[in-house]
Request: fold
Amino acid sequence: MYRLIYFPTPGRAEAIRIILDISELPWENITVDFSGYSELRESKKLPWGLLPVLETPLGSLSESSSILRYLGKMTDYYPSDAWSEAKVDECLDAISDMSNILVATFSINDLEEKIAARKVLSAPGGKLSNCYDLFCEKLQNSKTGWIAETEKPSIADIRLFSDCFGLVSGNYDGIDPSLIEGREILLEFHSKMCAIPGIYSRYKDMKDDEILWVYSPGAFTTNE
Ligand SMILES: N[C@@H](CCC(=O)N[C@@H](CS)C(=O)NCC(=O)O)C(=O)O
Reply:
């Protein structure tokens, strides 16, 4: 039995939840609040003091990208040649850098100030908007349509799906789906990801979920 421990939000865990579903490994989704997290940290159960953590039969594994790579290798979602692996890793790091731009705003205590900072980041020319432009450019230029130009979808696509759409759910004050508007290639990517059976079944009934609606088939279009 595998156990994924994280907060209830998608955050850095949703891509892992997706690949666990796809893997068909037996797994349990353990969610904790901040006091549950503090307890785990105090009891030294977190390899690097942070979440997510995946408990496996071999021990606990931390760092979301490492967990994704591990599970990717156990499924068909991580390529087996060194170059393709490196390109998948490159995408994972770039997507993580995008998420860190948002994380940098978490420490702004004043809500109005936080919203204003995020609006600047997501307006055209802002750092988040620029990342979305880059993702679109990569998808557009990819011969296969997958972000790391792999033959099949990879953990990089799963991370892109999880992070790019997760950001605009409404969970983060000041950021909304306008980041997706007009970015047709991202919408096409959304449809392709939703066609993967494990993803489709995970989110097909989530249209009305306050946070997870962004992953549901047809979330941003009417023709899925
Ligand atoms: N590089 C790590 C970052 C993990 C991380 O920052 N986790 C946050 C939640 S998203 C956390 O555990 N925060 C608790 C804290 O900082 O007190 C990863 O990708 O897993």
